[in-house]
């Protein structure tokens, strides 16, 4: 089994974070032998487990779960897209080096995705290429930079660079919309806004016509099962058919672009997974867990491996085969 959606958080000190930004930059406070806290300046952001910064504990947990490989990436709070581009470029390079150090002891089990200063296209392209040469198997980006979605000309330019450079891209939702009073409780930003953010990223590329301008060689995957995309695609196709404002920049039905990207399997329900495979095709769904966070799959691979709604060939593709091809893994 190859899990393509799993996070780390290196042992970043408060002093290192201050060099990026004294108020917003994240760092790690070790609060006990088996616990830590991601901090954002002086504020607590999220309690975390040591597998985030201890690769030996992670690999032991992978053995327990029956996982062969994890493709690990930054916790999205580390992106820094709202901060000074020059400082974030240095920060991303340092975080990428730390991610490779995290993987170095188990190179066959742990594979690294890079982060980039996406607010600056030139710097982002440079760091993506540097990271690729250093040993990263791809790059993880957020689904937007401020109010710029993935159809923004500069973000499309970055995706084009990844396409021609053979750099796979994982898109992760972050900085969710609707964070005011209406979503204060019950983790609603993660339950409502996160799927919406992911769908917005996909539809921004489809309806803007960006996929028409991007090379088909682009390897692009959206985390969290593509959000609400598969479950609202009929509505989108219907709107494209009957409303010219929807299709003005999109020459083909939205559903025809499903062969331009992949998604992970983190949907937590066998019926939802079956629909996702029916919409995307079994060759474009990869095992993703969101490990080790609480909203992730607790028994990684169980949803795919145990459902009677997938056949054996579909399971083999989703559990490992598609990821091996997507990330060029041996």
Automatic annotation (TrEMBL):
Gene Ontology CC entries for this record: cytosol
Keyword set, alphabetical order: Decarboxylase, Lyase, Metal-binding, Zinc
Top-level taxonomic group: Bacteria
Catalytic class of the enzyme: lyase
UniProt keyword annotation of Zinc present: yes
UniProt record, GO biological process: secondary metabolic process
Residues covered by the Amidohydrolase-related domain: 2-329
An example Gene Ontology molecular-function term: hydrolase activity
A matching Pfam family: Amidohydro_2
Pathway assigned in UniProt: Secondary metabolite metabolism; quinolate metabolism
Family (UniProt): Belongs to the metallo-dependent hydrolases superfamily. ACMSD family.
Subunit details: Monomer.
PANTHER family recorded: 2-AMINO-3-CARBOXYLMUCONATE-6-SEMIALDEHYDE DECARBOXYLASE (PTHR21240), 2-AMINO-3-CARBOXYMUCONATE-6-SEMIALDEHYDE DECARBOXYLASE (PTHR21240:SF27)
Protein name listed in UniProt: 2-amino-3-carboxymuconate-6-semialdehyde decarboxylase
Protein's organism: Castellaniella defragrans (strain DSM 12143 / CCUG 39792 / 65Phen) (Alcaligenes defragrans)
């Amino acid at each position: 089994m190859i899990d393509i959606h799993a996070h780390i958080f290196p042992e970043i000190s408060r002093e290192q974070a201050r060099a990026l930004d004294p108020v917003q930059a994240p760092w790690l406070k070790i609060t006990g032998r088996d616990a830590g806290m991601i901090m954002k300046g002086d504020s607590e952001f999220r309690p975390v487990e040591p597998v985030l910064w201890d690769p030996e504990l992670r690999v032991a947990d992978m053995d327990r779960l029956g996982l062969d490989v994890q493709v690990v990436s930054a916790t999205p709070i580390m992106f820094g897209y709202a901060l000074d581009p020059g400082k974030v470029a240095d920060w991303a390079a340092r975080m990428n080096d730390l991610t490779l150090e995290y993987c170095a002891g188990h190179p066959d089990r742990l594979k690294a995705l890079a982060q980039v200063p996406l607010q600056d296209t030139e710097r982002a392209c440079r760091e993506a290429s540097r990271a690729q040469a250093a040993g990263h198997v791809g790059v993880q980006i957020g689904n937007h930079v401020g109010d710029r979605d993935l159809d923004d000309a500069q973000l499309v330019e970055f995706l084009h660079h990844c396409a021609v450079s053979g750099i796979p891209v994982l898109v992760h939702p972050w900085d969710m919309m609707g964070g005011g009073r209406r979503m204060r409780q019950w983790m609603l930003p993660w339950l409502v806004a996160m799927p919406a953010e992911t769908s917005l990223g996909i539809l921004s590329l489809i309806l803007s016509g960006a996929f028409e301008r991007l090379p088909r060689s682009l390897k692009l995957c959206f985390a969290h099962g593509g959000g609400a995309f598969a479950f609202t695609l009929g509505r989108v196709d219907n709107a494209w058919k009957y409303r010219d404002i929807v299709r003005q920049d999109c020459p083909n039905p939205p559903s025809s672009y499903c062969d331009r990207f992949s998604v992970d399997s983190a949907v937590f329900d066998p019926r939802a997974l079956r629909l996702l495979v029916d919409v995307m095709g079994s060759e474009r769904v990869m095992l993703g867990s969101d490990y080790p966070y609480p909203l992730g799959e607790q028994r990684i691979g169980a949803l795919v491996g145990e459902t009677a709604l997938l056949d054996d060939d579909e399971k083999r593709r989703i559990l490992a085969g598609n990821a091996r091809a997507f990330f060029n893994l041996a």
